Amino acid sequence: MEKNMLFHYGKSVSGAQFYDRTKMRQDVRAFLNGHQSLMIKGSRRYGKTSLIKQVFNDLEITPFYIDLRRISRLEQFNEALLEYAYSKIGVTGVIKQLSNNLMTFLKTHRTTLKINVEILETTVELFAQENSTVFDYFANTLSIAHQIAKESNQHFYMVLDEFQDIKRFSSKEIDLLELMRAEIQHHSNITYVFLGSHMSIMTEIFENKKSPFFNFTRKLQMKPFELEELNDQILTAFKTLRVIFADDNDLCELLEKLGGHPANTMLVMQNIENIVKRDNVEVITQELIIKAYEDAYDELTDLFVEYLRDIQTKEHLHDVMYRLAKDEKQLLDSKLIYHKYSLLLEMGYIQKVEKGHYQIIDSLFKKFLCEV
Question: What is the pTM of this model?
Answer without folding.
Answer: 0.88
